[in-house]
């Protein structure tokens, strides 16, 4: 038996102002996307903005449903839109902003496991990293230089 250690290195910024202008701009787009969140059940709104290598920005927000599992997270809404509209473009960066409408969310909100799996698919498909930035409504911003960093031991096409 041997043990393996899995390490992920993330960058944590005190606030958005510490990030370069292009990331601030992408996060601004995520804020706009979040305004279209349809989340009457959880009252938790999430916005995602994706920058593609063709300079297009694709937005997504969480869309809920009275049949709860039929809803979809912001990140998957955005990434599936990108994959559908621009199948040949590479996904460079994704900015995510999330928070509750019931209480203030001041901690960075990472993408859920299902969204990580969905984003990982595109990272594998394009064979280049997708930078991920996520935050709450205000405060710290976390950067991961790739999705793989957030999802060690990924299940991907190599095992099929
Ligand atoms: N949600 C997202 O949009 N992204 C995540 O990564 C986590 C959760 C949404 C789904 C649901 O509409 C609400 O947040 C509460 O779970």
TrEMBL record:
Keyword Hydrolase in annotation: yes
One of the record's GO cellular component terms: cytosol
Ligand binding (Zn(2+)): 73, 112, 115
UniProt keyword Ribosomal protein, yes or no: no
Pfam families (UniProt xref): dCMP_cyt_deam_1
Protein origin, superkingdom: Bacteria
Cofactors named for this entry: Zn(2+)
Top-level enzyme category: hydrolase
Key words, A-Z: Hydrolase, Metal-binding, Zinc
One record GO biological process: pyrimidine-containing compound metabolic process
Function recorded in the entry: This enzyme scavenges exogenous and endogenous cytidine and 2'-deoxycytidine for UMP synthesis.
The family this protein is said to belong to: Belongs to the cytidine and deoxycytidylate deaminase family.
Name this polypeptide is given: Cytidine deaminase
Annotated gene: cdd
